Amino acid sequence: MSRTATQIVTRAATAAVFATALLFGGAGAALAQSADQVKADFARAVYKNSAAKVHNERPQPLLRAVVVLRVKLNEQNQWQAEVFRDNPQQPEMTQEALASVASLPAPTGLSPKAAELLRNEGVVEAWLFQTDGRFALKTLAKPQRGA
Q1: Residue 63 placed within a domain
Q2: Are 23 and 30 in contact, with CB atoms under 8 Å apart?
């Protein structure tokens, strides 16, 4: 690879790392632009903020609960979650998913496009709960194990 190509690749990789860090918790202007990037950055922020409650394994075949939330930013830059799907027999799992959103710090350095997306449409994310109560988010979860 030529020196110029190596510099371009290095700069692109560095920008990607900074975009993730900046979108949810860093200073400066975030580079994340697409809806998929914003959703993945949101999921990483939940993972970072709820590390003790998250697992990084393949989800078990029969999940304890699946909770789906639409998460938006309000005008005060605070996270708000709306329940799309829950398990009425497992209300504590819905509360756990909502708590993982409520405890997120306000994002800093959002690009105008990311801020607009999060305020208008938000992101829809599924919390996949294991029997032990730990969760993975669908956006970042490994493939589910077979039955």
Answers
A1: yes
A2: yes
CB count within 10 Å of CB 132 equals 9
Position 144 in a domain: no
Q: Which DSSP category does 142 fall into?
A: P
Residue 93 Cα to chain centre, angstroms: 17
What is the pTM (predicted TM-score) of this model?
A: 0.77
Where does the pLDDT of residue 55 fall: very low under 50, low under 70, confident under 90, or very high at 90 and above?
A: very high
The confidence band for 21, taking pLDDT boundaries of 50, 70 and 90, is very low
Angle at 43 between CA 38 and CA 45, to 5 degrees: 95
Lowest mean pLDDT among 9-18, 31-40, 44-53, 66-75: 9-18
Total domains present in the chain: 1
Asked if the structure places residue 147 within a domain, the reply is no
Q: Is the pLDDT of residue 132 over 60?
A: yes
**CA nearest 102: which of 140, 138, 51, 50?**
50
The CA distances from residue 24 to 41, 46, 82, 85, in Å, are: 7, 9, 20, 25
Question: What's the CA gap between 58 and 142, in Å, rounded?
Answer: 5
User: Domain limits at 128?
Assistant: 3-137
